[in-house]
Amino acid sequence: MKREENKSRCPINFTVEIFGDIWSLLIIRDMIALGKKTYGEFLDSAERIGPSVLADRLAHLERKGIIAKRTDEADKRKFIYSLTEKGLDVIPIVYESAVFGSRHSPDPDAPDVWFESLKHDKEKVLKLWREAVVSGSSFFNGPDSVVRKLNLASGD
Amino acid sequence: MKREENKSRCPINFTVEIFGDIWSLLIIRDMIALGKKTYGEFLDSAERIGPSVLADRLAHLERKGIIAKRTDEADKRKFIYSLTEKGLDVIPIVYESAVFGSRHSPDPDAPDVWFESLKHDKEKVLKLWREAVVSGSSFFNGPDSVVRKLNLASGD
DNA sequence: TATAACACTTTGATTATCGAAGTGAAGTGT
DNA sequence: ACACTTCACTTCGATAATCAAAGTGTTATA
Fold this sequence. Notes:
Number of strands of chain A: 2
CATH class of the largest domain in chain A: Mainly Alpha
Number of helices of chain A: 9
Largest sheet of chain A: 2 strands, antiparallel
Shape of chain A: globular
Distance between the termini of chain A: 36 Å
CATH superfamily of the largest domain in chain A: Winged helix-like DNA-binding domain superfamily/Winged helix DNA-binding domain
CATH topology of the largest domain in chain A: Arc Repressor Mutant, subunit A
Strand content of chain A: 5-15%
Oligomer: homodimer
CATH architecture of the largest domain in chain A: Orthogonal Bundle
Number of domains of chain A: 2
């Protein structure tokens, strides 16, 4: 696991000590953009996270109060991971990271509707995104997806 | 140095592959919040980055086009690091990281004026912040600091 | 009741991080 | 002009994180 030592009490350092690694933000992305909830779903991420690192990061995010873990009552082998209130406040960081990547990546790959959403008001999109996640949807998927609320396209 | 392999073309992954470590964002923070410009100034950060890691991260950020390096003509031993246009676009990510840390750190330590600035309109603060950095100032310091423009306090 | 699915652990090799000490070029004081 | 300091790094060796592959135990499914 990573060193997490409270090197300073700077607010930015506080955030970096939680999310300053390759994987933590990508897991949150899969939750809030795609609606992923289980270990197996996170495992087949686009970036191919390994099982030990995934287990480590999920435990890390849980200990930091970003996500919560509960057993899936319909299938006791599974656990459902969800964002806490604190975790919901990570959405703006992910959003701005996506904006930066969309602007500066030489060949960004994302659904068209994501780029469409960039034309809408930022605060409005962020509000819809949070509401989507709170109600069990995500940016792209689910009945309350951002994509649906912006009337951009399908969203399953 | 870190592995940088283009694991996917996701815009968020693009950003994470640049800033997904403990130190890169803290260096940018020191530039845009405090106006630091040289290796020696970065070395005495609050979080005590080591010399080899600092050298590695500066080279990394330069290669990624986030910062530019030029020799200090007034003192040829020194180099001046500054943000590129691309680097300026990192400001919103740092801002949102600071917002998250300010809200969720149990005991955040920052100048009062930072917390004051949170009461102002986000887009306005971001605009002032970028202008401050472009003109050689930073959030807290310099004649064009955000602190000055918001009439919050001194700012040297 | 056998088999498969799921959520991890374990392992051992590779790679990154760390602090301490060292290097060479450029500036400063006398 | 010569010693001394400052500056921006490098080098080094120890510690810690990362990785892919294989294994474990529990719960579902045929």
